[in-house]
Amino acid sequence: MLSRHQVLHVARLARLELTEAEQERMREELSKVLDHIEKIAELGDLADVEPTSHVIAVENALRADEPRPSLPAEVALRSAPESDMDGFRVPSPGPAPA
Amino acid sequence: MRPRGSSAPRDTNPDQRSSRSDALTLTAAEAAARVRAGELDAAELWHGYRERAAADALGAYTWVAGGGDAPAVDRNAPLAGVPVAVKDLFCTEGVPSQSGSKILEGYRPPYTATSVARLSDAGAPLLAKTNQDEFAMGSSTENSAFGPTLNPWDPARVPGGSSGGSAAAVAAGSAPWAIGTDTGGSIRQPAALCGIVGLKPTYGAVSRYGMIAFASSLDQAGPLTRDVTDAALLLGAMVGQDPCDSTSVGLPAPVALPTRTSLEGVRLGVPEELTGEGIAPGVLASFTEALDVARELGASVESFRLPHAAHALSAYYLIAPAEASSNLARYDGVRYGYRADGVRDLFHMYTETRDQGFGAEVKRRIMLGTYALSSGYYDAYYGRAQKVRTRIREDFDAAWERFDFVVTPTSPTVAFELGAKTADPLSMYLNDFCAVPMSLAGIPGISIPSGLSEGLPVGFQIAGPAFSENALLDAAYALERAIGFDAAPWRQAA
């Protein structure tokens, strides 16, 4: 069973703000899912098994290194919640998070 | 061709059907052939489907093309102007694309996904965008910021997911065909639950460029169609290496339209682990009947063990959320989509935007994935899951020594009622256990309807070695013809 502290730690890593009710529900739901997932421990020692990160063998996929136009700034900024002077505008960083 | 009825949605009044509706009963391949022969006007097809999509009452769509002139199409193009419905998560230039999420509210991408652009180049204009589980996380299309999609066979039930909007649209006949994406069953399972055909290609066959990412080592786009021939035609227009996706490789040969009518000499393997406990009796009965049909067509059918299949779901629910937690880090309220109001600093803009913008299931997966990747747990969870993935690939490699295809039920149950599994995430996850092993191995799988159980469609899954799409489509075609499933929900209900 995950602790409330673990849930809060992971939420912070994931930049998620969880309400008290969400924290408790997340603790229960994730614990249940992890209990099921932990069945992979039954497979014993897998030290000699290579991990699979990609299923199809692909050699380096290279293209010619030629300059080409990029997305115009005004198009890239069109979907931004807030923009200013050809840039994305964000709130002040404020004090460093504790 | 097997008999095919009108594909009108259930609530269409037959008296109001015009001659235009007759064109809408054709499969996409039939419609394309008529357009090419000059017997059918592509504009008529466009307007007919556009009106149906606009009148959809199943929540299948998130956006439908406007009612102006039909797009100009070349009737000699491979897809001859037959319009296509596209899952919301494909970026479409200037057209809302938000992967079913509030966090991408109002996003209109500045570019179009390669697979959609290829379809458009092949003569299939964009008809509509379809509903889905948020970021493709779900098996019921209930996790959408747009609300749920309903199953055309019974509107009290889910269409499956995450490509539930595409499946419901095709099953209801409001789109001639559609594309979706499959990460752990998201094309095959909704196709099964809606009584249509769904194909997940080999990983890398279709470019992922412009697909709003869920789990990048698993995500793959593919067709959802009324029959196997349509699936082959649509797949053929989507595949290909793409300089914008370095993991794309295309297919070794062009996709051919299937012609095979016999399964003489074809060896089918039935994995014990995916055909026993957990499969509903009615689903298993339909599956067994389909195996009998396969034998009558000349196939050999033999049980075998896929020893690590029991662990596939666990590996999947570590790998996919881990990749998702990384992919979804980009939603920070800075460059596009939703941003929380009245935040006091940058850190809280991130956390409050993500808290308000993501739905419960997406948060659950981000949490699970972040935990699996976090310091101290990486080796036990994510690292170990990647090794289990290797074992599962090896299981399939061993299977191909003995069999041409592996067959299973696509989904352990028929369509379930709305709300039945939303309170228990694990029960929803268990729905994927027949589909996930193929995803982890990167191999192609197709779901075709094998019959009905409790009046609802059952899906039969055929999986083959990597890049065996042509053989897979041929086998599915032979079986489809022999089974003779009637894909018309309203007629079954009558």
Explain this structure.
- The complex is a heterodimer of chains A (98) and B (494).
- Chain A has 98 residues and is mostly helical.
- Chain A has a domain at 1-42: Glu-tRNAGln amidotransferase C subunit, N-terminal domain (Histone, subunit A, Orthogonal Bundle), CATH 1.10.20.60.
- Helix content of chain A is 34%, strand content 4%.
- Chain A contains three helices and two strands.
- Chain A has a two-stranded antiparallel ribbon with strand order 1-2.
- In chain A, strand 1 (83-84) and strand 2 (87-88) form a beta hairpin.
- The longest helix of chain A is centred in the first third of the chain and has 18 residues, at 20-37.
- Chain A is flat.
- Chain B is α/β, with parallel strands linked by helices and 494 residues long.
- Chain B folds into two domains: 14-307 and 391-493, Alpha-Beta Complex (Amidase signature (AS) enzymes), CATH 3.90.1300; 309-386, no CATH class.
- In chain B, 36% of the residues lie in helices and 12% in strands.
- Chain B has 16 helices and eleven strands.
- Chain B has helices spanning 19-24, 28-36, 42-54, 114-121, 164-172, 188-194, 228-238, 281-296, 312-327, 346-357, 360-373, 379-402, 425-430, 436-441, 469-483, 489-493, and strands at residues 61-64, 84-87, 126-130, 177-182, 197-200, 220-225, 267-271, 300-304, 405-409, 445-453, 456-463.
- In chain B, strands 1-3-2-4-6-5-10-11-9-7-8 form an eleven-stranded mixed beta sheet, sandwiched between helices.
- In chain B, helix 4 (114-121) links the parallel strand 2 (84-87) and strand 3 (126-130).
- Chain B is globular.
- In chain B, 65% of the residues are buried.
- Mean pLDDT of chain B is 93; it is low at 1-18.
- The chains are: A mainly alpha (98), B alpha/beta (494).
